[in-house]
UniProtKB/TrEMBL annotation:
Protein name: Prepilin leader peptidase/N-methyltransferase
GO biological process, one term: methylation
Hydrolase among keywords: yes
Organism: Candidatus Borkfalkia faecipullorum
Pfam families listed in its UniProt record: A24_N_bact, Peptidase_A24
Residues annotated as transmembrane: 6-29, 105-123, 135-152, 158-179, 199-221, 241-268
Record-annotated Prepilin type IV endopeptidase peptidase domain positions: 113-216
InterPro entries linked to this entry: Peptidase_A24A_bac (IPR014032), Prepilin_IV_endopep_pep (IPR000045), Prepilin_pept_A24_N (IPR010627), Prepilin_peptidase/N-MTase (IPR050882)
Reactions listed under catalytic activity: Typically cleaves a -Gly-|-Phe- bond to release an N-terminal, basic peptide of 5-8 residues from type IV prepilin, and then N-methylates the new N-terminal amino group, the methyl donor being S-adenosyl-L-methionine
Cellular component aspect of the GO annotation: plasma membrane
Residues in the signal sequence: none
Tagged with keyword Methyltransferase: yes
Length: 270
């Protein structure tokens, strides 16, 4: 019977992940533009044609339509497909990693919802260099709900909030002192405060290290493959660097194995 519950829960998480992934695409497109999330109904951004329900089925509709609008044939960004697929994978991963019995479902749900918000933040920041406050609030509320799934860890989570938010606030203020401008968006500060509340202090340390390491590696790799005379977009425009995708990646990785990585690293020296 327990195996039945396990399989059923995994299937449920997969379906929810796909459906919520479809909604994440709505958030990614509409929030930066200040649009209503409910109206107008889903439509082609080129011809304005209302998308029928059978053309709005996660993953399947994109594949059946070959990534094109049924009405005008305009290309649909592969981002829609990738976000739905990624979110489903994240939800299934949470179920596989956390599920022990039915009592562990709330923890898996908190992790899955947090990862959905982080995915939305990452893509929104990549496309718009913007982190909506509504997503920040959602992540904080989800992280706070996570505290109540295991009250024995509340002090660890509180220290995580203070460490994550405090460290990035220090970097934010230091950039003003040294360079008289933002070296880090304040949205990143709020993101990591919530990440600390979600992960605890060990997890947020791992998340920060991973985020910085991946960001630096990405910059180096992209510079190596730049054509002569080209520069990275942030260097050309002077705009802030989209750091949220790296923070989201670090937080997601730390959510699954942050404490183990932290303790394993310390064990090398103790």
């Amino acid at each position: 019977m327990e195996q039945f519950y396990y399989i059923t829960t995994c299937v449920l998480f997969a379906v929810l992940g796909l459906c919520i992934g479809s909604f994440l695409n709505v958030l990614i497109y509409r929030l930066p533009r200040g649009m209503n999330l409910a109206k107008p109904a889903s439509h082609c951004t080129v011809c304005g044609h209302k998308i029928a329900w059978y053309d709005n089925i996660p993953l399947l509709s994109y594949l059946i339509l070959r990534g094109k609008c049924r009405s005008c044939g305009a290309r649909i960004s592969p981002r829609y497909f990738l976000v739905e697929l990624s979110n489903a994978a994240l939800w299934i991963s949470c179920c596989l990693a956390v599920y022990r019995d039915v009592t562990s479902i709330p923890v898996a749900a908190v992790y899955a919802l947090a990862l959905s918000v982080l995915l939305t933040m990452a893509v929104t920041d990549m496309e718009n260099l913007f982190l909506p406050d509504s997503l920040q609030i959602a992540l904080f509320v989800i992280a706070l709900a996570g505290v109540f799934t295991d009250l024995s860890q509340w002090q660890d989570k509180l220290w995580g909030l203070l460490l994550g938010g405090g460290f990035f606030l220090f970097i934010y203020c230091l950039s003003f002192v040294l360079f008289q401008k933002e070296g880090l968006g304040f949205g990143d500060v709020k993101l990591m405060a919530s990440a600390g509340l979600l992960l605890g202090w060990k997890g947020v340390v791992v998340a920060t290290v991973l985020a910085v390491a991946v960001a630096l590696a990405d910059i180096v790799i992209r510079k190596l493959f730049l054509r002569r005379g080209e520069t990275l977009p942030c260097a050309e425009t002077g705009e802030e660097f989209a750091f949220a995708p790296y923070l989201a990646f670090g937080t997601a990785a730390a959510l699954f194995c942050g404490t183990a990585l932290f303790d394993g690293y310390l064990a090398l020296f103790l």
